[in-house]
Amino acid sequence: MSGHHPHHCHHDHGSDDDVPYGQVEVPAGLGRRALLAGAGGTLMLAALPTAARAANTTMAGAPTAAVGAGRSSLITQGTMLVHADMHNHTVMSDGDGSAEAAFASMREAGLDVAALTDHATLFAIDGLSSSEWRTTGDLANAANDPGQFTAIRGFEWSHPLQGHINVWNTSDFADLLRAGSPSSLYNWLAGRPGGLASFNHPGREAGRFNNFSFNASARDQLVGLEMFNRTDDFLFEGWSSGMASPLVACLNAGWRPALTGVTDEHGTTWGFHEGKGRSGLWVAENTRAAVFEAMVARRSFATRVSGLRVDATANGVRMGGVLNVTSGDVRFLLDLDRGSAWDGKPLRIQVLRPGTSAPTVVDVIDTVNGQVTDFTVPLNVTDGDWVVLRISDPSLPNGTPGPAGHPCNDFAVAYTSPWWLRP
């Protein structure tokens, strides 16, 4: 993504020059919002809760960079922490704000890495056109400031039943005509080396990516699972109606994503939201190449508070890595800090392992902000091949609880990316 890439999508299907490919013709005077009320308008309505938009102005003018911990890990070397939001919208799909203003807003708010990911779809909403795709790339290139601020172009593949998938670092984009199912999108992605993708708000749409049906050819490029989207913790999404935890379903299926947080901004104050999702990435430098390298390595954590630093190792292996442990004691080190704003704040660590409908919690460790927590947990690969650390505030409830008495029914602050017990 270092320069402008030609767009090859527009002419592939012999589309009419008067209505660019991927665009819905809008009668004069009818805005994009009005389309949502029309036939088939249920596609995107679930993505637009009014409560989320009502909070758009609460943080305007208050940069989140004012609060937070240092950028250097206390337990690893060679990388620095950057704060990222990789899922944002503009008026080029179903957002309210001008794309020209988005990157500047996110930089002003204290984010180090930001992406625009407008919807690409054929139904109910006027998604990205080929010219808007090129504009997004031009805006990202103009805002990109290597070493200081990384601006990225992406898109959100959007299916009304199967779910939404973000894609970054491709020269073209795919809507439902080009890729009509998750498996079709994985095949499309496999033909674009370097392209990276994420399962968005997992479990919100009933089909859940064909129930996270595994595609080995796309495993390495599927680098994200949103655990925080807006203000929501998705750990138990759908559990109350009989579905498995999206985390459990995704990881048990064989996928190996990092865990991420995003604001999924549809308003006009990108980046200025306390309490909404964001990600921490551990990068060698703040450039596109280094950001994508960190995403591929799964060196990231999900959170919904600004200025948080989370780094973790298991037997010396950083989160996102492979332990090659069959069975035995595994020593974890967790560096957890949000700076002076959280001095002395009690926090809790849950060690998540595979379950059926909900993760099994094999240990709970009390800790305090601003320290390295050192603990050992016995793990056995016969119980499943992944482990995740969830960090919570035990004084607050989980707004989407799981089984009665489950240790994760408190308020999630962060998730590490998983470790895997075998290659």
Automatic annotation (TrEMBL):
Q: Which InterPro entries match?
A: DUF3604 (IPR022028), Pol/His_phosphatase_N (IPR003141), Pol/histidinol_Pase-like (IPR016195), TAT_signal (IPR006311)
| Biased composition, class Basic residues, residue ranges | 1-11
Disordered: annotated span:
1-24
Q: Which residues form the Polymerase/histidinol phosphatase N-terminal domain?
A: 84-161
Q: Where are the transmembrane segments?
A: none
Q: Which domain of life is it from?
A: Bacteria
Q: What name goes with this protein?
A: Polymerase/histidinol phosphatase N-terminal domain-containing protein
Q: Which PROSITE patterns match?
A: TAT
